[in-house]
Design goal:
Layout lengths: L2 H13 L3 H7 L6 E2 L2 E2 L2 H11 L9 H15 L8 E9 L2 E9 L9 E5 L13 H11 L3 E4 L11 H15 L11 E6 L1 H16 L7 E4 L10 H5 L8 H11 L25 E8 L3 H13 L4 E10 L10 H19 L6
Parallel strand pairs: 5-6, 5-7, 7-8, 8-9, 9-10
Antiparallel strand pairs: 1-2, 3-4, 4-6
Helix pairs in contact: 1-4, 2-3, 5-11
Length: 350
């Protein structure tokens, strides 16, 4: 067993303790807010994290190492039937590493899905959502391309977004070679990756260019300057709190950049009609929960088909907790199922 597998096994054993014991180890009472109760396993992890150094006090390099180690211990292992291949795709300025996930039982009718990982534009890599992308490929029965876009502050806005946009165009134009229908691709992402996905769908619509068949937005940020009530109600949430969000934005945006630029705030766009169908998922204990929910409502009001789910007991970043939190595992499976069901329907952009 690998070291990460051993760590996951030990953590899984600890988190298998009865909920009252986990609550006792985490302060004695359940975390209850806005009518929602935090999963006891996540409450335990949050209590443990508070004893350590906050990300907002780290350098980007330190934060990348710390988050990578944490995710290795909590993430779901990729299903054995999914073939994973290293890939190189075009980026905004030169080629970027990527990862291709091929299911064991592919369907020739399923579009390729391009996915952008979470991390505030500062942390994260191809391993961050490895298990979730594998799960998507297996459930969709179609290829998934995960993009290792450039990170800030070494490469500030719009570098990461431009990498994802270039990778999407490449995947759309080369879908047939990836085992998908020619010219058809979907876009997805979680957190900052969700912002990239939403902004990309809007930009291609404005350009009159073939856009995604579907947009998957998991606990998305859709407005870097948002001040919704959940930003205050969950300002101290785990693992994403207000201080960490400010730290991300401070590293991601260059001096003088407009946080209301459509590529930074697709949630502010007036006309949302004609965009691709959306699957949107949010977490109950997340400063961003209001953003995702409001964007789902606005898309639906504009006539865009939307499947929306809020997972009240989960936290931001739950796609990386599927290996140790059963509810996160279940949520990832449901989200993948919603995407599969939507892509199996006649695709219309009403």
């Amino acid at each position: 067993m690998s070291r990460s597998g051993q760590q996951r096994a030990i953590l899984s054993w600890i988190l298998s303790l009865p909920a009252p014991v986990l609550r006792l180890l985490s302060g004695g009472v359940a975390t209850y807010r806005e009518g929602r109760t935090l999963d006891p396993r996540l409450q335990f992890l949050a209590a443990a994290a508070r004893r350590g150094r906050p990300m907002s006090a780290m350098t980007p390099e330190e934060a990348r190492r710390a988050s990578a180690a944490a995710f290795r211990a909590t993430a779901e292992a990729p299903p054995s039937g999914v073939r994973i291949e290293a890939l190189t795709v075009p980026g905004g300025e030169g080629d970027r590493p990527a990862r291709l996930y091929r299911p064991s039982r592919p369907s020739p009718e399923v579009p390729v899905l391009v996915f952008a990982h979470m991390g505030g534009g500062v942390i994260g890599d191809l391993d961050t959502t490895d298990g979730f992308c594998s799960r998507l490929a297996e459930t969709l029965r179609g290829p998934v391309v995960s993009v290792d876009y450039r990170l800030a502050p070494e490469h500030r806005f719009p570098a990461g977004y431009e990498d994802v946009l270039a990778a999407f165009r490449w995947a759309r134009d080369n879908a047939g070679a990836l085992g998908a229908p020619a010219g058809r691709a979907a876009i997805g992402g979680d957190s900052m990756g969700g912002l990239f996905a939403a902004a990309l769908a809007q930009e291609l619509k404005r350009a009159g260019e073939p856009g995604p068949e579907l947009q998957l937005l998991v606990y998305p940020c859709v407005d870097l300057a948002s001040e919704t009530p959940s930003m205050t109600a969950f300002a101290d949430a785990f693992p994403l709190d207000r201080a960490t969000m400010d730290w991300f934005v401070g590293h991601y945006l260059p001096p003088g950049a407009d946080p209301a630029d459509p590529r930074n705030a697709p949630g502010r766009t007036g006309d949302l009609s004609g965009l691709a169908p959306a699957v949107i998922a949010t977490a109950g204990f997340d400063p961003l929960v209001d953003q995702g929910e409001a964007y789902a409502r606005r898309l639906a009001a504009a006539g865009v088909p939307v499947d929306y789910r809020r997972y009240d007991s989960l936290v931001h970043g739950f796609t990386a907790f599927g290996g140790v939190v059963p509810e996160a595992h279940r949520a990832c499976g449901e989200i993948a199922g919603l995407v599969a069901a939507r892509l199996s329907q006649p695709l219309q952009k009403d």
